[in-house]
Design a protein that fits this description.
The protein is of the alpha+beta class and 370 residues long. It is 28% helix and 30% strand. The protein is built from 8 helices and 17 strands. The strands form 4 sheets. Strands 8-7-11-5-13-14 form a 6-stranded antiparallel β-sheet, with no helix packed on it. The protein has a 5-stranded antiparallel β-sheet with strand order 3-15-6-10-9, with no helix packed on it. Strands 16-2-1-17 form a 4-stranded parallel β-sheet, with helices on both faces. Strand 7 (168-174) and strand 8 form a beta hairpin. GO terms for molecular function: hexosyltransferase activity; UDP-glycosyltransferase activity.
């Protein structure tokens, strides 16, 4: 027979689970969904159709209303069995398309005040920094090139800045193809030059083009030559005035010499690992970043910003007109750019299960149907 202590533990477990169930059932959102008659009171459809649409796609939406979408809603057999919603983000991107990091996002072009005519350490570590991380597999950090840069040296973390006891290897990978672009080996006999808390070796100078997505990876850290996984100990990042951007992604792998595919999201932009690094400089053509050119660029940016603001005002006015005339636009709480399509779709599904009863859902795009 079970002892008193075992019985007490079982009863305590049951009480804890009953408490969780009670909290769940008394949650306001859940209570609302479980109210008697709530589900049966929802409108019922055979098919709920979600059409992904951009804020400025007024003509595409009108074309659909005048063709198959309008025909469905006027059809005596289908009009009460099918509902169509255009899924539109409720926030425009205030950045002109030409001044975004890429055409899919709403991030500004990071190139603000580029550092010229000097080598820059991308991932900095202070002299004397000590590591305690002995993972031997590849450790990487991701970055993006905003303006062509030349990689001049590769570097590796030297715990305590006192020389290497074993061999370490650094690879610079193309993140998209996962192919190595550059590599360097560091040994006790040939450790490279100590700069700060990392050792560097020259490599064949290689130009990374604008838009390049890369990862700097180092491997074979042991107890005698550990890496660091404490960002508070690192010296931070240097983007060269916007020449490169650092992704909030670190990565690790199992097999050395292979691109590490396992990603870890970093909540702050920081030097996640004391591991690999590199020296780089802007790849500048004659006069490209003269004082006059930079001033002209800033002026152009301001002019485009004013013009884009006027475009957004016209879009908003037209969108408000549509909202007054039709009941077929679902405004969802996202910035309306291509990269947010998954978020728009998830919010459409959430709206569908909360506000309707249905047999099927269909997702499409107004660009595919016009």
């Amino acid at each position: 027979m079970p002892g008193r202590w075992q019985v007490f533990v079982v009863l305590l477990s049951i009480a804890w689970q009953l408490n969780l169930i009670s909290e769940f059932l008394t949650n306001e959102d859940v209570t609302g969904r479980l109210e008697k008659g709530h589900v049966s009171a929802l409108p019922s459809y055979d098919v709920v159709i979600g059409v992904l649409s951009a804020r400025g796609n007024h003509e595409q939406r009108e074309a659909l209303r005048e063709t198959w979408a309008g025909n469905i809603l006027k059809h005596p057999f289908l009009q009460n069995r099918v509902i169509i919603k255009f899924i539109v983000g409720d926030q425009p991107c205030p950045i002109p398309p030409q001044d975004r990091l890429d055409r899919y996002s709403c991030e500004p072009d990071a190139l603000v005040d580029p550092v010229l005519d000097q080598d820059i350490i991308a991932y900095r570590v202070p002299n004397g920094a000590v590591g305690f991380h002995t993972y031997q597999g590849p450790l990487g950090m991701d970055f993006r090139v905003n303006f062509p840069v030349v990689i001049t040296q590769l570097g590796v973390f030297d715990s305590n800045s006192d020389g290497l006891q074993s061999g370490l290897t650094v690879h610079l990978y193309d993140k998209i193809s996962q192919e190595e672009i550059l590599g360097a080996s560091f040994t006790p006999e040939d450790p490279g030059e100590l700069i700060g808390g990392s050792r560097f070796k020259p490599v064949d100078q290689f130009v990374l083009p604008k838009g390049f997505e890369g990862s700097i990876v180092a491997e074979n850290f042991t107890s005698s030559d550990p890496s660091s996984n404490d960002p508070m100990m690192h010296g931070g990042l240097d983007n060269g005035g916007g020449l490169i951007s650092f992704h909030r992604v670190s990565r690790f792998g199992v097999e050395q010499g292979v691109f590490p595919e396992h990603e870890e999201r970093v909540y702050e932009e920081n030097n996640q690992y004391g591991a690999g690094t590199f020296l780089y400089r802007a790849h500048v053509t004659d006069g490209e970043f003269s004082k006059q050119k930079l001033e002209e660029r800033r002026k152009d940016v301001e002019e485009r910003k004013d013009m884009w603001h006027a475009v957004l005002l016209r879009e908003e006015k037209e969108l408000q007109r549509e909202l007054r005339m039709y009941d077929d636009i679902l405004m969802v709480n996202v910035i309306d750019v291509y990269r947010n399509l998954p978020k728009k779709l998830l919010k459409f599904y959430s709206w569908t299960v909360t506000n309707t009863r249905f047999n099927f859902t269909l997702k499409t795009d107004d660009g595919l149907l016009c």
